[in-house]
Write a structure and sequence with these properties.
By secondary structure, this protein is of the alpha/beta class. It has 2 domains: 4-211, Rossmann fold (3-Layer(aba) Sandwich), CATH 3.40.50.1170; 219-344, Rossmann fold. It has helices at 31-36, 63-76, 92-102, 126-137, 230-237, 259-270, 292-299, 310-323, 327-334, and strands at 4-11, 16-18, 25-27, 46-56, 82-86, 103-104, 110-113, 140-141, 144-145, 150-154, 157-160, 165-166, 175-176, 184-186, 190-192, 210-211, 219-223, 244-249, 274-279, 303-304. Strands 4-1-5-7-10-11-14-15 form an 8-stranded mixed β-sheet, sandwiched between helices. A 4-stranded parallel β-sheet has the order 17-18-19-20, with helices on both faces. Strands 2-3 form a two-stranded antiparallel sheet. Helix 2 crosses helix 3 (92-102), helix 5 (230-237) runs parallel beside helix 6 (259-270) and helix 8 (310-323) packs antiparallel against helix 9. The longest helix has 14 residues, at 63-76. The chain binds aspartic acid (ASP). The site of aspartic acid has 11 residues, from loops.
Length: 349
Protein backbone atom coordinates (compact mmCIF):
# COMPACT_ATOMS: atom_id res chain seq x y z
CA UNK A 1 0.00 0.00 0.00
CA UNK A 2 1.22 3.45 -0.92
CA UNK A 3 1.86 5.66 2.10
CA UNK A 4 0.00 8.93 2.48
CA UNK A 5 0.81 12.22 4.19
CA UNK A 6 -1.43 15.15 5.04
CA UNK A 7 0.13 18.63 4.98
CA UNK A 8 -1.66 21.04 7.29
CA UNK A 9 -0.86 24.64 6.43
CA UNK A 10 -1.27 27.19 9.23
CA UNK A 11 0.70 30.14 7.83
CA UNK A 12 4.20 31.38 8.72
CA UNK A 13 7.05 32.70 6.61
CA UNK A 14 7.24 29.59 4.44
CA UNK A 15 4.09 30.63 2.57
CA UNK A 16 4.34 34.40 2.92
CA UNK A 17 4.55 37.00 0.21
CA UNK A 18 5.40 40.69 0.47
CA UNK A 19 2.43 43.03 0.55
CA UNK A 20 3.07 45.41 -2.36
CA UNK A 21 1.57 48.36 -0.47
CA UNK A 22 3.15 48.03 2.99
CA UNK A 23 6.21 45.91 2.11
CA UNK A 24 5.60 43.57 5.06
CA UNK A 25 5.47 39.77 4.84
CA UNK A 26 2.00 38.24 5.20
CA UNK A 27 0.72 34.63 4.88
CA UNK A 28 -0.56 33.60 1.45
CA UNK A 29 -2.42 30.56 0.08
CA UNK A 30 -1.08 27.01 -0.16
CA UNK A 31 -1.05 26.98 -3.97
CA UNK A 32 1.97 29.20 -4.09
CA UNK A 33 3.82 26.70 -1.85
CA UNK A 34 2.95 23.75 -4.08
CA UNK A 35 3.78 25.84 -7.20
CA UNK A 36 7.20 26.67 -5.77
CA UNK A 37 7.94 23.14 -4.61
CA UNK A 38 7.04 20.98 -7.63
CA UNK A 39 9.19 18.19 -6.11
CA UNK A 40 6.15 17.40 -3.92
CA UNK A 41 4.66 15.66 -6.95
CA UNK A 42 7.68 13.38 -7.38
CA UNK A 43 7.31 11.38 -4.17
CA UNK A 44 6.02 7.85 -4.54
CA UNK A 45 3.46 8.42 -1.80
CA UNK A 46 0.20 10.30 -1.74
CA UNK A 47 0.24 13.87 -0.45
CA UNK A 48 -2.88 15.85 0.37
CA UNK A 49 -3.06 19.30 1.84
CA UNK A 50 -5.41 21.22 4.05
CA UNK A 51 -5.09 24.93 4.81
CA UNK A 52 -6.61 26.42 7.95
CA UNK A 53 -9.36 28.90 7.07
CA UNK A 54 -7.39 31.68 8.75
CA UNK A 55 -3.69 31.65 7.84
CA UNK A 56 -1.57 33.41 10.44
CA UNK A 57 1.83 34.69 11.36
CA UNK A 58 2.56 32.34 14.25
CA UNK A 59 3.02 35.25 16.65
CA UNK A 60 -0.79 35.23 16.62
CA UNK A 61 -1.12 31.59 17.70
CA UNK A 62 -3.59 30.92 20.49
CA UNK A 63 -4.39 27.61 22.22
CA UNK A 64 -7.58 27.42 20.10
CA UNK A 65 -5.36 26.72 17.10
CA UNK A 66 -3.75 23.79 18.92
CA UNK A 67 -7.26 22.44 19.54
CA UNK A 68 -8.06 22.92 15.84
CA UNK A 69 -4.88 21.04 14.86
CA UNK A 70 -5.70 18.18 17.25
CA UNK A 71 -9.21 17.94 15.82
CA UNK A 72 -7.91 17.80 12.23
CA UNK A 73 -5.40 15.10 13.14
CA UNK A 74 -8.00 13.09 15.08
CA UNK A 75 -10.38 13.25 12.11
CA UNK A 76 -7.73 12.17 9.61
CA UNK A 77 -5.62 9.88 11.77
CA UNK A 78 -6.74 6.59 10.23
CA UNK A 79 -6.56 7.95 6.68
CA UNK A 80 -2.92 9.13 6.70
CA UNK A 81 0.41 7.61 7.72
CA UNK A 82 1.97 10.91 8.71
CA UNK A 83 1.30 14.62 9.12
CA UNK A 84 3.40 17.67 8.24
CA UNK A 85 2.34 20.93 9.85
CA UNK A 86 3.58 24.08 8.12
CA UNK A 87 3.89 26.69 10.85
CA UNK A 88 5.66 29.97 11.53
CA UNK A 89 8.93 29.60 13.36
CA UNK A 90 8.25 32.14 16.12
CA UNK A 91 5.97 29.90 18.16
CA UNK A 92 6.58 26.53 16.52
CA UNK A 93 8.20 25.12 19.67
CA UNK A 94 5.14 26.09 21.74
CA UNK A 95 2.72 24.47 19.29
CA UNK A 96 4.76 21.28 18.94
CA UNK A 97 5.07 21.02 22.74
CA UNK A 98 1.34 21.56 23.18
CA UNK A 99 0.38 18.85 20.69
CA UNK A 100 2.76 16.40 22.33
CA UNK A 101 0.82 16.75 25.60
CA UNK A 102 -2.63 16.94 24.06
CA UNK A 103 -2.39 13.71 22.04
CA UNK A 104 -2.25 10.21 23.49
CA UNK A 105 -1.37 6.89 21.82
CA UNK A 106 0.37 8.67 18.96
CA UNK A 107 1.96 6.09 16.67
CA UNK A 108 2.42 8.20 13.55
CA UNK A 109 4.76 11.09 12.76
CA UNK A 110 3.57 14.66 13.24
CA UNK A 111 6.30 16.94 11.92
CA UNK A 112 6.29 20.71 12.28
CA UNK A 113 8.35 22.67 9.82
CA UNK A 114 8.54 26.12 8.25
CA UNK A 115 11.28 28.39 7.02
CA UNK A 116 13.26 31.56 7.57
CA UNK A 117 12.74 32.69 3.94
CA UNK A 118 9.48 32.30 1.98
CA UNK A 119 9.39 29.48 -0.61
CA UNK A 120 9.01 32.06 -3.35
CA UNK A 121 12.47 33.53 -2.69
CA UNK A 122 15.55 32.18 -4.50
CA UNK A 123 17.61 31.15 -1.47
CA UNK A 124 14.64 29.78 0.47
CA UNK A 125 15.19 27.14 3.12
CA UNK A 126 11.51 26.22 2.92
CA UNK A 127 11.88 23.80 0.04
CA UNK A 128 14.47 21.56 1.73
CA UNK A 129 12.61 21.67 5.03
CA UNK A 130 9.30 20.69 3.48
CA UNK A 131 10.79 17.94 1.33
CA UNK A 132 12.72 16.36 4.25
CA UNK A 133 9.67 16.62 6.53
CA UNK A 134 7.51 14.82 3.96
CA UNK A 135 10.08 12.08 3.53
CA UNK A 136 10.26 11.46 7.29
CA UNK A 137 6.47 11.65 7.70
CA UNK A 138 6.15 8.74 5.25
CA UNK A 139 9.14 6.76 6.58
CA UNK A 140 8.11 3.37 7.96
CA UNK A 141 9.80 0.06 8.70
CA UNK A 142 6.91 -2.21 7.79
CA UNK A 143 4.05 -1.10 10.05
CA UNK A 144 6.29 0.85 12.39
CA UNK A 145 6.68 4.60 11.81
CA UNK A 146 10.36 5.50 12.15
CA UNK A 147 9.56 8.68 14.11
CA UNK A 148 6.18 8.22 15.85
CA UNK A 149 6.44 11.50 17.75
CA UNK A 150 5.57 15.19 17.52
CA UNK A 151 8.79 16.63 16.15
CA UNK A 152 10.27 19.75 14.56
CA UNK A 153 12.32 19.57 11.40
CA UNK A 154 14.50 22.56 10.72
CA UNK A 155 17.73 22.96 8.76
CA UNK A 156 19.74 19.82 9.04
CA UNK A 157 18.04 18.30 12.08
CA UNK A 158 14.88 16.70 13.37
CA UNK A 159 14.17 17.32 17.05
CA UNK A 160 11.63 16.16 19.61
CA UNK A 161 9.10 19.02 19.55
CA UNK A 162 8.83 19.51 23.30
CA UNK A 163 12.63 19.73 23.66
CA UNK A 164 13.11 22.42 21.05
CA UNK A 165 13.71 26.17 21.21
CA UNK A 166 13.99 28.78 18.46
CA UNK A 167 17.30 30.37 19.39
CA UNK A 168 18.33 32.18 16.19
CA UNK A 169 16.24 34.77 14.37
CA UNK A 170 18.39 34.72 11.22
CA UNK A 171 20.19 31.46 10.57
CA UNK A 172 18.70 28.56 8.69
CA UNK A 173 19.57 26.31 11.64
CA UNK A 174 17.23 28.34 13.82
CA UNK A 175 16.22 25.63 16.31
CA UNK A 176 18.11 23.63 18.86
CA UNK A 177 17.32 20.98 21.40
CA UNK A 178 19.86 21.82 24.08
CA UNK A 179 19.08 19.04 26.53
CA UNK A 180 18.21 16.12 24.26
CA UNK A 181 19.88 14.66 21.17
CA UNK A 182 18.46 15.23 17.69
CA UNK A 183 16.12 12.47 16.48
CA UNK A 184 17.64 12.57 13.00
CA UNK A 185 20.32 14.37 10.99
CA UNK A 186 19.56 15.33 7.42
CA UNK A 187 22.48 15.10 5.01
CA UNK A 188 23.02 12.92 1.95
CA UNK A 189 21.08 10.35 3.94
CA UNK A 190 18.59 10.84 6.71
CA UNK A 191 20.36 9.33 9.71
CA UNK A 192 17.86 8.39 12.39
CA UNK A 193 18.98 8.33 16.00
CA UNK A 194 16.76 5.40 16.94
CA UNK A 195 17.97 5.31 20.54
CA UNK A 196 16.60 8.81 21.06
CA UNK A 197 13.22 8.19 19.38
CA UNK A 198 10.33 7.05 21.55
CA UNK A 199 8.76 3.78 20.45
CA UNK A 200 6.79 2.99 23.61
CA UNK A 201 3.39 4.01 22.23
CA UNK A 202 3.73 2.60 18.77
CA UNK A 203 3.58 -1.12 19.40
CA UNK A 204 -0.01 -1.11 18.18
CA UNK A 205 -0.46 1.37 15.36
CA UNK A 206 -4.17 0.62 15.32
CA UNK A 207 -4.83 1.76 18.88
CA UNK A 208 -7.07 4.79 18.98
CA UNK A 209 -5.55 8.22 19.14
CA UNK A 210 -6.99 10.31 21.94
CA UNK A 211 -6.88 14.04 22.38
CA UNK A 212 -7.33 16.29 25.36
CA UNK A 213 -8.32 19.80 24.39
CA UNK A 214 -9.39 21.61 27.55
CA UNK A 215 -6.38 23.86 28.08
CA UNK A 216 -6.21 26.46 30.83
CA UNK A 217 -4.68 29.85 30.15
CA UNK A 218 -4.75 30.85 33.82
CA UNK A 219 -0.99 30.90 33.99
CA UNK A 220 1.68 33.59 34.13
CA UNK A 221 5.42 33.80 33.91
CA UNK A 222 7.67 35.53 36.38
CA UNK A 223 11.12 36.13 34.95
CA UNK A 224 13.42 37.33 37.69
CA UNK A 225 16.21 39.82 37.12
CA UNK A 226 18.56 41.72 39.44
CA UNK A 227 16.50 44.57 40.84
CA UNK A 228 13.04 43.11 40.28
CA UNK A 229 10.77 44.86 42.75
CA UNK A 230 8.53 43.19 45.31
CA UNK A 231 5.67 45.10 43.71
CA UNK A 232 6.18 43.34 40.37
CA UNK A 233 6.38 39.92 42.03
CA UNK A 234 3.35 40.67 44.19
CA UNK A 235 1.31 41.98 41.25
CA UNK A 236 1.89 38.80 39.24
CA UNK A 237 1.05 36.60 42.21
CA UNK A 238 -2.13 38.59 42.84
CA UNK A 239 -3.64 38.26 39.36
CA UNK A 240 -7.23 37.14 39.83
CA UNK A 241 -7.89 33.53 38.90
CA UNK A 242 -4.20 32.71 38.44
CA UNK A 243 -3.54 29.00 38.91
CA UNK A 244 0.06 28.52 37.85
CA UNK A 245 3.23 30.60 37.63
CA UNK A 246 6.37 29.69 35.74
CA UNK A 247 9.27 31.08 37.75
CA UNK A 248 12.13 31.74 35.34
CA UNK A 249 15.06 31.43 37.67
CA UNK A 250 18.82 31.81 37.33
CA UNK A 251 21.25 28.95 36.60
CA UNK A 252 20.33 25.75 38.37
CA UNK A 253 17.06 27.14 39.70
CA UNK A 254 18.27 29.97 41.92
CA UNK A 255 16.42 33.10 43.01
CA UNK A 256 16.89 35.91 45.54
CA UNK A 257 16.85 34.81 49.17
CA UNK A 258 15.46 38.04 50.55
CA UNK A 259 12.65 37.49 52.98
CA UNK A 260 9.99 39.50 51.20
CA UNK A 261 10.49 37.71 47.87
CA UNK A 262 10.24 34.28 49.50
CA UNK A 263 7.26 35.39 51.57
CA UNK A 264 5.32 36.55 48.45
CA UNK A 265 6.00 33.28 46.61
CA UNK A 266 5.13 31.21 49.71
CA UNK A 267 1.93 33.15 50.16
CA UNK A 268 0.97 32.44 46.53
CA UNK A 269 1.66 28.71 47.01
CA UNK A 270 -0.37 28.71 50.23
CA UNK A 271 -3.27 30.21 48.24
CA UNK A 272 -3.11 27.24 45.86
CA UNK A 273 -1.03 28.74 43.03
CA UNK A 274 1.37 26.22 41.53
CA UNK A 275 4.88 27.59 41.00
CA UNK A 276 7.07 25.81 38.45
CA UNK A 277 10.80 26.50 38.48
CA UNK A 278 12.39 26.67 35.01
CA UNK A 279 15.91 27.92 34.40
CA UNK A 280 16.68 30.96 32.23
CA UNK A 281 19.65 28.99 30.84
CA UNK A 282 19.11 27.24 27.51
CA UNK A 283 21.13 24.22 28.59
CA UNK A 284 21.24 22.29 31.85
CA UNK A 285 18.79 21.77 34.64
CA UNK A 286 17.13 23.08 37.75
CA UNK A 287 18.59 21.44 40.85
CA UNK A 288 16.81 22.95 43.83
CA UNK A 289 18.73 22.58 47.06
CA UNK A 290 22.14 22.74 45.45
CA UNK A 291 22.62 26.37 46.50
CA UNK A 292 21.29 28.33 49.42
CA UNK A 293 19.50 30.47 46.82
CA UNK A 294 17.24 27.61 45.80
CA UNK A 295 16.85 25.69 49.06
CA UNK A 296 14.15 27.99 50.32
CA UNK A 297 12.19 27.60 47.07
CA UNK A 298 12.24 23.85 47.63
CA UNK A 299 11.15 24.26 51.24
CA UNK A 300 8.12 26.40 50.38
CA UNK A 301 6.89 23.91 47.76
CA UNK A 302 8.09 25.23 44.39
CA UNK A 303 8.04 22.40 41.77
CA UNK A 304 11.18 21.65 39.81
CA UNK A 305 11.02 21.80 36.02
CA UNK A 306 14.42 20.05 35.77
CA UNK A 307 15.65 20.56 32.19
CA UNK A 308 12.31 21.39 30.56
CA UNK A 309 12.25 24.19 27.97
CA UNK A 310 10.23 27.31 28.70
CA UNK A 311 8.00 26.52 25.72
CA UNK A 312 7.22 23.03 26.99
CA UNK A 313 6.67 24.35 30.53
CA UNK A 314 4.00 26.78 29.27
CA UNK A 315 2.01 24.16 27.37
CA UNK A 316 2.47 21.49 30.05
CA UNK A 317 1.05 23.87 32.67
CA UNK A 318 -1.91 24.73 30.38
CA UNK A 319 -2.55 21.04 29.77
CA UNK A 320 -2.27 19.86 33.39
CA UNK A 321 -4.26 22.73 34.91
CA UNK A 322 -6.92 22.22 32.23
CA UNK A 323 -7.00 18.50 32.87
CA UNK A 324 -6.82 18.08 36.64
CA UNK A 325 -8.59 19.81 39.52
CA UNK A 326 -6.34 18.33 42.15
CA UNK A 327 -3.24 20.48 42.76
CA UNK A 328 -1.22 17.56 44.13
CA UNK A 329 -1.84 15.59 40.94
CA UNK A 330 -0.76 18.57 38.82
CA UNK A 331 2.40 19.04 40.91
CA UNK A 332 3.21 15.34 40.69
CA UNK A 333 2.92 15.37 36.91
CA UNK A 334 4.87 18.60 36.50
CA UNK A 335 7.86 16.94 38.11
CA UNK A 336 7.91 13.86 35.88
CA UNK A 337 8.41 13.43 32.15
CA UNK A 338 5.05 12.82 30.45
CA UNK A 339 6.17 12.93 26.82
CA UNK A 340 9.94 12.85 27.03
CA UNK A 341 10.16 16.54 27.92
CA UNK A 342 12.32 15.96 31.00
CA UNK A 343 15.56 14.03 31.19
CA UNK A 344 15.15 12.74 34.72
CA UNK A 345 12.26 10.76 36.12
CA UNK A 346 10.80 9.95 32.73
CA UNK A 347 7.83 7.69 33.11
CA UNK A 348 7.42 7.23 29.39
CA UNK A 349 4.82 8.48 27.01
N1 LIG B 1 6.79 35.65 12.11
C1 LIG B 1 6.90 34.41 11.37
C2 LIG B 1 5.97 33.40 12.02
O1 LIG B 1 6.29 32.89 13.05
C3 LIG B 1 8.31 33.92 11.37
C4 LIG B 1 8.55 32.64 10.61
O2 LIG B 1 7.68 31.94 10.19
O3 LIG B 1 9.75 32.33 10.45
O4 LIG B 1 4.90 33.13 11.50
Amino acid sequence: MKKSVLIIYTGGTIGMIRDPKTGVLCPFDFDQISDNVPEIGKFDFKIDSYALPQLIDSSNVKPQMWVELCNIIMKNYKKYDGFVILHGTDTMAYSASALSFMLRNLAKPIIFTGSQLPVGTIRTDGKENLIAALEIAAAYDGEQAIVPEVSILFGSKLFRGNRTTKFDAENFDAFESFNYPALAEIGIHINYNRKAINYSTSTDIHSDLESFTNLSTDIATLKIFPGITDEVVQTICNIKGMKGIILESYGSGNAPTDKKFIEIIKNAIDRGIIVYNVTQCLKGRVDMGRYETSRELLNIGVCSGYDITFEAAVSKMMYLIGRYENADEIKKQLKIGLKGELTKNDVGF
